[in-house]
Amino acid sequence: MTSVPTTVTASATSEPHTVRPFAVISGAQVQQVLEGREKQIVELAESTYRLHGAGDSVNPPSYFLRFPDRPTSRIIALPASIGGHVRVDGVKWISSFPENVQAGIPRASAVLILNDQDTGYPFACLESSIISATRTAASAVLAADRLSRDRPRPTRVGFFGTGLIARYIHTFLAGNGWSFDEIGVHDLSADSAAGFRRYLEQSGATGRITVQHSAEELIRGSDLVVFATVASEPHVSDPTWFSHNPVVLHVSLRDLAPEIVLASTNIVDDVEHCLKADTSPHLAEQLTGNRDFLQGTLDDVMAGRVTVPADRPVVFSPFGLGVLDLAVGKYVYDETARSGKLHVVDDFFHELRRYG
């Protein structure tokens, strides 16, 4: 369905502004656009980090809505604005209800609103759990590549936590040419670990797949460690488990004790965002009273301002930036519009003339 944009003139001397028709993009459409485009989305993540690093973005702190009667649950608002070739404002509204898993439905659900930078009018609402997982996976795979360039490329990967995010990270690794001799799997839920193993086998993953029954075995046996859990506080505390200097994608942010953070090279996506909400780096800052343990951001690494040593563990802790959601969401919108498959809500904006 299509609709004609409405042109509104504020005054006789002002330039006319066009209000885009409001569209709704379903999860099925989002998946159709993104499936098989892992390389393009990693490249998009890289360009977005560069725009953010250059200051061509606005990415204020995320807002956490918490519930006294449901302490494990939260809904987070991630407002942001991105310039460059993307040029869009918006907000992701994402919930995390861990008890959903016991009911057989995913933990997280989300929508993304895109706003026009000229008028401020929202022009699209997209199902965003897929967008969120996609941008998280693209960010992680970009980091895996950049942080391993000055050391032997990892041949053994270990997944600690086996939910949707782990699956997307594996998909993006495979889609960007990564293959492994060994794939380790560990989860507190034996059923989840078994299910992830079945997914790996069905995906055609190369290498020997092993379900590890201890966290220590998984970490010691992996050159690339992916933390994708729902942990709310550190549960891995022994720095000696990382003595082989792996690349650690600390996607879930709260798995590692401060002692491990302080014994590692630490790269984040954004310093101010990451050092809050009792993430592992935030706990390390509280323990030491400074930020000296942070070497820089992923953009610093890409720009050559930070060199990652090969003789220490390197930990990438991404808080998750709203600008990445916007970049992926705008990509989905543009591709859907180009295909002529936008679902437009006619007359969504009823009053478009100031004086009627």
Structural class: alpha/beta
Q: N-to-C terminal Cα separation, in Å? A: 27 Å
Round the Cα radius of gyration to an integer and report it.
21 Å
What are the secondary-structure elements, in order, as H or E? Answer: EEEHHEEEEEEHEHEHEHEEHEHHEHEHE
**What is the β-strand count?**
18
Rounded mean pLDDT score: 93
Largest sheet: 8 strands, mixed
Helix content range:
25-40%
Alpha plus pi helix count: 11
List the uncertain runs.
8-13
Residue share in β-strands: 15-25%
Shape: globular
Protein name: 2,3-diaminopropionate biosynthesis protein SbnB
Organism: Streptomyces pratens
InterPro entries: NAD(P)-bd_dom_sf, ODC_Mu_crystall, ODC_N, SbnB
Pfam families: OCD_Mu_crystall
Notable traits:
18 strands; 11 helices; 8-stranded mixed β-sheet; 356 residues; single chain; globular; 8-stranded parallel β-sheet; 2,3-diaminopropionate biosynthesis protein SbnB; alpha/beta
Write the layout of secondary structure elements.
Elements: E1 6-8, E2 17-19, E3 23-25, H1 27-34, H2 38-53, E4 57-58, E5 63-67, E6 70-82, E7 88-96, E8 108-115, E9 122-127, H3 129-147, E10 156-160, H4 164-175, E11 182-186, H5 190-202, E12 208-211, H6 215-220, E13 224-227, E14 247-250, H7 258-262, E15 265-268, H8 271-274, H9 280-288, E16 294-297, H10 298-302, E17 314-317, H11 322-338, E18 343-344
Parallel strand pairs: 3-9, 10-11, 10-13, 11-12, 13-14, 14-17, 15-16, 15-17
Antiparallel strand pairs: 1-2, 3-18, 4-6, 5-6, 6-7, 7-8, 8-9
Helix pairs in contact: 1-3, 2-3, 2-11, 3-4, 3-11
